Amino acid sequence: MNRKVRKTVSVTLVLLLVTLLFAACGKTDTGTGTGTQPTQSASSPTEAPKEDSKVFKNRVTIQIPVYDRGVEGLPPVDDNYWTRWIQKEFGDKNNITVEYVAIPRADEVNKFNMLLAAGDAPDIIFHYDFPAAVAYKDAGAIQPIDIDMLKEYAPTYYQKNVDLDMLKYGFIDNQQYFIFASRPTAYNWLTMIRQDWLDKLNMPMPTNLDEYLNVLRAFRDNKLGGPNTVPQTHRLPYPNGYFANAYRPYPIPEEELALYSDLSVVALTWEPVKQNIKTDNLMYNEGLISPNFALDSDGSKAKAEFVTGVGGVYGDYLTKEGIIDVLLSNVPDAKLSLLPATAGVPKGGVPAERAYWPFGMIIGFNSASSEDEVKATMMLLEWMIQPENLFTLQNGIEGKTYKMGDDGLPIAIGDYKGEERMNYNSNKDLWCLVIEGKDYGSEEANLKVQMTTFAPDGFEYLIKDRYEECVANQKYWYTDFLFDTGISAVSEYKAILQEKFQEYYTQLVMCNPSEFDALYERLCKEYLDAGFQKIIDEKKAVYERMKGR
Amino acid sequence: MFGDRYIKTKIINRTADIFIYLTVGLLSLLCVLPFIHVLAKSLSSDAKVTSQLVYLIPKDFNLRAYRSVLGDPSMIRSLWHTVKVTVIFTALGMFLTVCAAYPLTRKRLRGRNIISVLFVITLYFSGGIIPDYLLMHRLGLLNKTASLILPLAFSAYNMIIMRTSIQTTVPDSLEESAFLDGASDIRILLQIVLPLCKPILATLCLFYAVGRWNAYQDSVFYITRQPLYLLQHKLNLLIQTTNTSLTSSEAQPDTVTNPEVIKSACIIFATLPIVIVYPFVQKYFVKGVMIGAVKG
User: Which domain holds residue B12?
Assistant: First the structure.
């Protein structure tokens, strides 16, 4: 009996292994074919007869990704008034069916990879972050773009990419893989300081780090926010976002920029990062920042400290609701000012901040898409970038979702609940294919709209001050170095390094200042061993190849 | 002397009781406090929640969040859809489980050991996420409700519980006598075996239903059409999205994605149905766990 059981077990296991083997082998050779075949056969006789007319003879179906942010109380992202409007205004007129594919915002890479594995991915593959987009290309998911085809089918879109000099970013391994949506600058990231506290102490606005620390010490000693005063609110940094903006050298040597300035992995071993953490350590030990910052990974604690009037300084993306209005409900006579970027910079330095790329969404075409699908997708981009179409997509319908102001700029009617109501963030996830924010034609107009959309009534000056500061400091800013190929070590090690950074950062900030240097030394070594050395080596090799050394 | 000892044991028992009550009380507080916290947040005003002033008692009590959750047709649609899927899933799961478990208890079924081993293998090994996804793709089940029902509908674990339970509660002789009286196999199953197994049927129903209600991973993978989202999938999106914002170079929106209050209300909304059902069937749950503990 026992032997019999054993026999059957081994036989079934062998059978199982064999079937698995066959299943695995079978997958590879059919996988790439299935995705494209039906559409190709359906549309192959399309273009031939008429060259000039771009309307397709046979219906072409294109699939466009759209972020699903799980926002409560809005119609489905893949089927709503505006997706149907695009179908009616663009699709039906060109014999194209536009299907939207919902991509969960928080899980986009997994979702795309899954769709790609199944040969089921949409015709556009996009990502906001350059390294991640290049990773898709390295995986073979993106097809090279025929520039002549782009010129023919999306001339305006092409021209915009040329005018803003964006095409070079998508030119990798001698081929054009990506095209880009443009990015008008938004000025709503800012740091606020309690002006009424400064007034009480009769202190001027700090302009360098020493002055700033003295202000914070005064906040602490005078307990302006009650017994638990937090002079500067502080949260656990994002695992990838610690750029040491205030400590970067100016000008930054190009090689340093290439090796260390990166959106995916923090350069723990870089001197500016060390200096920045050292200051954080000092502030922590002097009781100038939130004592429980290490537990505040989403920033909600820091925000709570500020809006209850306990905190003196707070940095965030300003929104019309949720920050200042709450602060005023708790502390009615609070006054706020913009804390200048120079307040964090040691004397003699300049804020050589890491700047955004000049582009927004990074767009590639699925390598499994047929020529007609690519053409139709280009036509969609071209249609969407036309000012009148974009304006409607961004603002909706006059009298319902917006009204025209006296200055000729649209003002959103926020509480419109009818059928034509806008999706989340003014349909942004639909028009992010062509632009990353609202552009009303001039800096002035843009600023004017931003002042009313981002700041609550009476605090518009914060946005304006920030704008003026950005304009003044822009000359010191650097975008990351542009490699002409993906850095595979980054994608391989970034998860582990991101996790380690938060842990090491916490240790470094909370340690005794006398132990800082020794601890930093040790953790840097561990960080390098955990993969950061490999990233530096690979970047260095690529950098030197590009410089022809 | 006798009384002395009696008092002593009494005191020991008392202290033991107090100790036990204290531990159990603390443990259950540990479970229930986060829930009360979420409930309190869902009933408070936005400003108080952002200021983190709400702990266990709502501040600025109001029902606005619930009004907006209940006023959202997609939420109600999701709830209805989830209930539908759960009911169909449970019915199908029970049918399959009974059909597999009963024959495997009968000695006259040849090769039942092999079949059992095959079932057990699925307990230890699975194809993995990508092969599963490819399978669904090939079967054309992506974006179909069936993809949320079929793959998980048969659980080998539940089948083993069922089989063990039938083996222990229904003696062979009972079946034999029914057989001699001329009952067919199906009749024996329906009129003799199943009525004797009612408690375990209830338990497994609950296992299946709760499992389906709480699972969202398959929905996240297989479903991209919003109207077909399960409630937990919606909840997952709701919670996750707010944690990603700054980690990419996306421009920031001019509105908050989901205020904390709405999030809390959604969590309560999605949890409430199962919390309401639970106390009524909980006794079977315990029983089912016990049955699983005795290996046949």
Answer: 2-50
Taking the C-alpha atoms of residue B283 and residue A225, their distance in angstroms, rounded to an integer, is: 53
A398 and A294 in a common domain: no
A455 part of a folded domain: no
Domain around A385 = 57-185+358-439
Residues A326 and A368 in one domain: no
CB atoms B249 and A325 under 8 Å: no
pLDDT at position A412 is 76
DSSP A268-295: TTSHHHHHHHHHHHHHHHTT-B-TTGGG
The complex's ipTM works out to 0.71
pLDDT at A178: 95
**Residues in B touching A106 (Cβ below 8 Å):** 237, 240-241, 243-244
Question: How many structural domains are present in chain B?
Answer: 2
One domain, residues A113 and A211? no
Number of domains in chain A: 2
- CATH number reported for the structural domain that contains residue B166 in this entry: 1.10.3720.10
Torsion B42-B48-B50-B53 (CA) sign: negative
If asked whether residues B220 and B105 sit together in one domain, one would say: yes
DSSP code for A45:
T
- B81-127 residue pLDDT tens: 999 999 999 999 999 999 999 999 888 888 999 999 999 998 888 88
Partner-chain contact A329 B47, CB within 8 Å: yes
Q: How many CB atoms lie within 10 A of CB B166?
A: 23
Separation between Cα atoms, residue A548 and residue B70, nearest integer Å: 64
Instruction: Label the pairing between strands A359-366 and A313-317.
Output: unpaired
* Domain match, A226 and A350 both: yes
Task: Please give the pLDDT value at position B212.
Answer: 92
> Chain B: nearest CA to A104, how far in angstroms?
7
What is the count of residue pairs from A and B with beta carbons less than 8 Å apart? 171
Mark yes or no for CB contact B142/A120 under 8 Å.
yes
Specify the pTM.
Answer: 0.78
pLDDT band of A40, cuts 50, 70, 90: very low
Looking at the fold, whether A207 and A332 belong to one and the same domain comes out as yes
pLDDT tens digits, A458-499: 999 999 999 999 999 999 999 888 887 778 898 889 889 999
Confidence at residue A4, expressed as pLDDT on a 0 to 100 scale: 60
Closest CA of chain B from A519, distance in Å: 27
Nearest to A313 by CA among A198, A221, A204: A198
Task: Please tell me the distance in Å from A389's CA to the nearest CA on chain B.
Answer: 21
| Residue B91 shares a structural domain with residue B227 | yes
**Residues B139-173: pLDDT tens digits?**
999 889 999 999 989 999 999 999 988 888 888 88
Instruction: Assess whether B138 and B203 both reside in one domain.
Output: yes
Identify whether residues B45 and B85 lie together within a single domain: no
Chain A positions touching B227 (Cβ under 8 A) are 76, 79
What residue has token string 């908050």? B256
Chain A residue whose CA is closest to B239:
A70
Predicted confidence (pLDDT) per residue in A167-199, tens digit:
988 988 889 999 999 988 888 889 999 999 999
Give me the residues of B, 255-274, that contact A with CB < 8 A: 255-260, 262-263, 266
pLDDT of A231 reads 96
Listed residues A420, A439, A458: the one ending a domain: A439
Query: Do residues B122 and B215 share a domain?
Result: yes
Q: How far is A549 from chain B (nearest CA, A)?
A: 32
User: pLDDT > 90: what percent of chain A?
Assistant: 58
For residue A125, the domain's CATH number is 3.40.190.10
Are A484 and A539 contained in the same domain?
yes
